């Protein structure tokens, strides 16, 4: 089972993070989640979600209950997943989902993900604020998100940075260049429109699908060019 770190920061685009968590859990990934303080405000403003970082539960982000609409794309991921829990639902309160998600407070430098000896298959910062981007690019580790990203760079593991900002300043471009030069994958939240997108969810799935591509996860979140 692949183990990945997911960091959510205070950039606009929290819906990308919600969908990413859904997809990773259904695909059978072992997810280590950390959320910045500013992300809490964005979740509330954009999605009406109330996140308590000191008493976090996955149900604060992923709705629970049987009244959620079935998602054919998630069903396909379940069938493709090699997980023993392939038929589990990210919308449930099941212990299966809880076992696959570990939460780390963004101030906890004693967390496993703060060390290179804690093995992972990669880290995604989605969405990534420009402040977080600048801190990582310049080697500053003022919270667990910065430190975990620094660990992935120094260990030469996959670090996927998903900025959601426009326009981009020269300083921000320089920071992105630094990150890319040091091995990070820059994956802007700039969805394509060639895949027959009809809804905002299709645009979200395009970006989440591209993240999954980088992690080697088979999916049908969006139609590929030439297919």
Automatic annotation (TrEMBL):
The keyword Magnesium does not apply. Keywords: Flavoprotein, FMN, Prenyltransferase, Transferase. GO terms for molecular function: carboxy-lyase activity; prenyltransferase activity. SUPFAM superfamilies: Homo-oligomeric flavin-containing Cys decarboxylases, HFCD (SSF52507). Gene3D superfamilies: Flavin prenyltransferase-like. Residues 2-215 form the Flavoprotein domain. Signal peptide: none annotated. The keyword RNA-binding does not apply. This is Flavin prenyltransferase UbiX.
């Amino acid at each position: 089972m692949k183990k990945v770190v997911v960091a959510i920061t205070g950039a606009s685009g929290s819906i990308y993070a919600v969908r990413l968590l859904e997809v990773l859990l259904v695909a059978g990934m072992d997810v280590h989640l950390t959320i910045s303080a500013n992300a809490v405000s964005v979740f509330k403003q954009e999605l009406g979600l109330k996140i308590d970082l000191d008493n976090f539960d996955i149900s604060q982000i992923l709705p629970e209950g049987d009244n959620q609409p079935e998602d054919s794309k998630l069903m396909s991921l379940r069938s493709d997943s090699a997980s023993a829990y392939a038929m589990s639902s990210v919308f449930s309160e099941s212990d299966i989902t809880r076992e696959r998600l570990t939460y780390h407070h963004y101030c906890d430098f004693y967390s496993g993900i703060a060390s290179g000896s804690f093995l992972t298959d990669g880290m995604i910062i989605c969405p990534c604020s420009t402040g977080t981007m600048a801190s990582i690019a310049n080697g500053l580790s003022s919270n667990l998100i910065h430190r975990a990203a620094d660990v992935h760079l120094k260990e030469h593991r996959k670090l996927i940075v998903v900025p959601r900002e426009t326009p981009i300043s020269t300083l921000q471009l320089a920071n992105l260049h630094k990150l890319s030069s040091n091995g990070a994958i820059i994956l802007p939240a700039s969805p394509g429109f060639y895949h027959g997108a009809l809804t905002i969810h299709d645009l979200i799935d395009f970006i989440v699908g591209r993240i999954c591509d980088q992690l080697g996860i088979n999916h049908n979140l969006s139609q590929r060019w030439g297919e």
